[in-house]
Amino acid sequence: MRHHDAIEHLLTTEQVILRREHPELDDALTRACAAGAIARILPGVFADRGRAEDPIIRMMAVTRWDADAVIRGRGAAALTYWTDVKLGSTIQVASPFRHRPQPGFEFTRWRVPPELVQRCNSVPVTAPSLTAIDLATYDFTEPIDIALGSKQVTLETLREALRLTAHRRGNTERWKVMLDSRADPWSKAERLAHRLYRQAGITGWVANKELILPGAGTYYLDIAFQRERIAGEVDGWRYHSKPEVFESDRLRQNALILDGWLVLRFTWRMLTTDPNYVVRVTHEALASRGGLR
User: What span, in angstroms and rounded, lies between the C-alpha atoms of 232 and 266?
Assistant: First the structure.
């Protein structure tokens, strides 16, 4: 097989080429790169020029270049539970080895516990629980909210990820976010509703309560006061604006009402611009059902 054909074959079958694995192609790779047929991603690592900026190709390249490297941050989120996350121009990588700076990559010297590594299309990435707690802050909780909503993580797996990565810089902030997540919010809007209730001293509720209604199906109530049979439904724009969700929400509300539930609906605007209304209406609903917390 001619060197040109060998390079084409490797690009088709392996997507990236490591010079050290193919010493017989050393000169051919140098010429192909100089001619613009392939692009250098990392020292001794090449890909088709038309795909060299593809984040997936770059993640494959760095984890082939360093077999102990693990993709973390937004790259890991994109390959696991958060497929539409904005990646940015830099791939975050954890490695037990010290690397010189490389364009388009951010290296952190850290060996990720093997229990918190999984493979996606042969690329090692941090598990969703570790990814979520690494990305989240108290003011940017979406990484955890989306992870919980995807059901790829639970509060317990998030806590376990923190326990397995103890003594890291930033863990105090991460535990603060975990405390704020204790009611298992599945969206930013739900988390805000939980904060409002806690600040107002409203208790006796659970989040994302599974409810099986004979003949109607299984529903998850955003907020449920089980004793009073009051359901708080939090309508975040990101999810509830979809036509199919709009329809299913109405079917769900009708089924709840017919089963004796009082349904309160709160929008993102209510939660952010008129939180007193949310608290007041909840108090009034509880009073009407013989309970006030």
Answer: 7
CA distances from 53 to 41, 58, 108, 177 (A): 9, 7, 21, 34
Q: Compute the CA torsion angle 86, 91, 96, 98 (nearest 10 deg).
A: -140
Alpha helices in the chain (DSSP H): 3-13, 26-34, 55-65, 73-79, 128-135, 142-150, 155-164, 171-180, 188-200, 237-240, 243-258, 268-273, 275-288
Report how far apart, in Å, the C-alpha atoms of 229 and of each of 79, 161, 234, 255 are: 40, 35, 16, 13
* Nearest-angstrom CA–CA distance, 68 and 108: 12
Question: Which fold would CATH assign to domain 188-288?
Answer: Endonuclease; Chain A (3.40.960)
Cα–Cα distances in Å, from 97 out to 18, 113, 114, 274?
Answer: 19, 15, 16, 51
- Please report, as a single letter, which amino acid is at residue 64: R
Q: How do the domains of the chain map onto residue ranges? A: 1-49, 54-182, 188-288
Here the tokens at position 9 are 């074959």
Rounded to a whole number of angstroms, the distance between the first and last alpha carbons of the chain is: 78
pLDDT in tens, the chain (293 residues): 588 889 999 999 999 999 999 999 999 999 999 999 999 999 999 999 999 999 999 999 999 999 999 999 999 999 999 999 999 899 999 999 999 999 999 999 999 999 999 999 899 999 999 999 999 999 999 999 999 999 999 999 999 999 999 999 999 999 999 989 988 888 899 999 999 999 999 999 999 999 998 877 899 999 999 999 999 999 876 554 567 767 888 888 899 999 999 999 999 999 999 999 999 999 999 999 986 55
